[in-house]
Input
Amino acid sequence: MVETPSPKQVAGEAAAAHVQSGMILGLGTGSTVAFFLEALAARIQAEALEVCGVPTSLQTAEKAQQLGIPLTTLEKNPVLDLVVDGADEVDKHFRLIKGGGGALLREKIVAASAAEVLIIVGAGKMVKRLGTTFLLPVEIMPYGYLSTRDRVAKLGQCSPFVRITEAGEPFVTDNGNFILDCRFEEGIKNPEAMHATLSQIPGVAEVGLFLNLCHQVIEGGEDGEAILHQRKS
Ligand code: 5RP
Output
């Protein structure tokens, strides 16, 4: 019996079909992107596709290298044709919460460098309001991090928690920073205003709200079908 692939696999494999030879890619981070990388590597092998990618994390760089996907940097290729990345939540305006894997800062720099951003998600990530099913990750500097956390809490809109590893230490990003995971009891009512407010707090390096950065979403289904959502404006 042939097993139905998981929704994340469906989305990742569908995204690989969007890649054309000659493209400079942004390679996102996470378990859905891992499926994309495998499908991309298979196409590179089978079709002699000529592509190279800027990885958004050390984890992605390692996996791409293992799979034989050529890598490049934003210094060598400042303009990317297509970024393929995952997300933790997507709303109907194509606004995203990202950073579940802690790679939000590099992911946002890479997304902002691309002509096209394609987000790939499994089932259940399309939400009515951001912040209702997932905590909002905010990357902060280690220096004075508890003061930064308290300043975020003082806004009175969310409860921020320092992300902690299984070893009981603060989680450290590829940039040497920490992450605050912020709980909004009723979700984020105005993502643009919240992004602006959080970005102004000293010590905040990046906010996991991706606004006006996503052009298309591929949603993998439990039935093995991929749905392509395209942004109109
Ligand atoms: C990493 C991310 C990921 O893309 C996001 O957390 C989704 O991950 P997954 O595909 O494993 O569900 O933003 O910083």
Q: What stands out?
A: Residues 28-32, 85-88, 98-104, 107 surround ribulose-5-phosphate (CB under 6 Å). Residues 7-127+211-230 form a domain with the Rossmann fold fold (CATH 3.40.50.1360). The two ends are 43 Å apart (CA to CA). The helical segments are 7-16, 31-47, 58-67, 104-112, 145-154, 191-199.
